[in-house]
Amino acid sequence: MPRPIEAFIHVDALRHNLARAQAAAPDARVWAVVKANAYGHGIERVFDGLRSADGFALLDLAEAERVRALGWRAPILLLEGVFEPRDLELCSRLGLWHAVHCAEQIDWLASHKTQQPHRVFLKMNSGMNRLGFTPEAFRSAWVRLNALPQVDEISLMTHFSDADGPRGIAHQVAVFQAATRDLPGERSLSNSAATLRYGAQPGQQPQPPLRNDWVRAGILSYGSAPDFPERSIDDWGLRPAMTLRTRLIGLQSLRIGDTVGYGSAYRAQHPMRIGIAACGYADGYPRHAGTGTPVLVDGVRCTTVGRVSMDMLAVDLTPVPGAGHGSELTLWGEGPNGSRLPIDEVAQAAGTIGYELMCALAQRVPVRVVDAA
Ligand SMILES: *Cc1c(COP(=O)(O)O)cnc(C)c1O
Questions:
Q1: d(CA 304, CA 21)
Q2: DSSP run (H or E) holding 123
Q3: What would the CATH number be for the domain defined by 11-226?
Q4: CB 328 within 8 A of CB 336
Q5: How many Cα atoms are found within 13 Å in the side-chain-facing hemisphere of 125?
Q6: SS3 303
Q7: Ligand 1 pocket check: which of 18, 34, 41, 191 to mutate, most ligand atoms within 8 Å of Cβ?
Q8: Is 33 in the pocket of ligand 1 (CB under 6 A)?
Q9: Would you give the DSSP letter of residue 157?
Q10: Peptide bond preceding 229: is omega within 30 degrees of 0, i.e. cis?
Q11: What element of type H or E holds 370?
């Protein structure tokens, strides 16, 4: 029998979450962002759940080939554009749309030989200072691209640094709008956080009014709240797309003063039962999750004790006296009897975000795709 750890990808949850993005941006088309192997879920596994998107956005050319291999004929966008000139050949061959964020990428396009003019998304650095042309350089980049026979349509995009937080997006929206006012082309501004927080909500006007022809829905599709803990997935009406589940493979009864695991990082203050679960950091569970990290045992909320080791972690079984060898543990996602542990809560206990945990699901964990619909 294999180790009892398993991950589940919930296709119906992906479908539901994508519909939430569509509802929040009713006037926009939606890119389902599937970079990083669909945030660790697996491109092939999420494809059916996200196929009602208007396009797939990603950054790795091999991943774009995988999406085309699934039979997807609609748009695919390379969010970082091409990395070297010959990548443009693949763009021509597979009909990939690509971001253009720097002068080098324009140079490469200018010397690219193609029968198929490319659809490009010209990216502005409106304040994040990662990729993109400054507002001052944006117009001349547009003019240069517009003159190239290799270029078909030019869309305009930018990315927000603070859509999930108190600083918000207004400063970047103002910069973007001022520098693009008289430029034609479709606009793509919002990631998940901006789509949800500045999107259509019943009885509320979007503020500031944001024109988005395309929103880029990443994390929300996978059932993590981009602005946790301010808002949870329940607040946003999202459902976990990934469940990580295992079983108890050992039990210990601790006396006062007994310690648990490496470094004796936990010491019992009273007699207690603990369970040893078949899940460790080599499965992708965060080692930085210390004592007190939430976990469900038979659907009942419990907490971990001591350090996470490579293949195991320990759980305080006080809330579930009936738990024993083989009891089911939900590390995150959907538990039995309608119980649920959002990945965001585990991430918070480990000092990180849901994105990192889902992306880190280890290769050795068997994954099953389930579709309740
Ligand atoms: C990853 C990414 C997104 C999606 O971000 P989420 O926060 O997951 O919605 C959107 N746009 C760009 C440019 C990205 O790189």
A1: 34
A2: strand 118-124
A3: 3.20.20.10
A4: yes
A5: 13
A6: strand
A7: 191
A8: yes
A9: E
A10: yes
A11: strand 367-370
- Does this model's pTM top 0.85? My answer is yes
- What residue spans define the domains of the chain? 11-226, 242-370
Is the C-beta atom of 358 inside 6 A of ligand 1? no
| Residue 192 Cβ < 6 Å to ligand 1 | yes
Cα separation, 339 vs 302, whole angstroms: 12
- Any idea which fold 242-370 has? Lyase, Ornithine Decarboxylase; Chain A, domain 1 (2.40.37)
**Residue 152: count of CB within 10 angstroms of its CB:** 12
Tokens of 167: 């600083």
The span from the CA of 134 to the CA of 137, in Å, is 5
Q: How far is the CA of 333 from the centre of ligand 1 (A)?
A: 22
Which tokens go with 153?
């349509």
Q: What distance in Å separates the CA atoms of residue 84 and residue 224, rounded to the nearest whole number?
A: 33
Of 149, 126, 150, the C-alpha closest to 137 is: 126
Q: Cα separation of 248 and 229, whole Å?
A: 29
Please choose, from the candidates 158, 159, 124, 116, the residue with its C-alpha nearest in 3D space to the C-alpha of residue 141.
124
CA-proximal residue: ligand 1, atom 14 (nearest): 79
State the distance from the centre of ligand 1 to the C-alpha of 35, rounded, in angstroms: 9
**Active-site residue flag, 113:** no
Task: Give yes or no: 35 in active site.
Answer: yes
Please list, in sequence order, all residues whose beta carbon lies within 8 angstroms of the beta carbon of residue 212, skipping any fewer than 6 positions away: 25, 27, 28, 187, 188, 189, 190, 195
Residue indicated by tokens 């007994």: 258
Alpha helix locations (H) across the chain?
11-24, 35-39, 43-50, 61-69, 87-94, 103-110, 135-146, 170-180, 192-197, 233-236, 343-349, 354-359
Mean pLDDT by runs of 10 across the 373 residues of the chain is 94 98 96 98 98 98 98 98 98 98 98 96 98 98 98 98 97 97 98 95 63 97 98 98 98 98 98 98 98 98 98 98 98 98 98 98 98 80
In which residue are the tokens 């554009």 written? 81
Q: Which two tokens stand for residue 124?
A: 């502005």
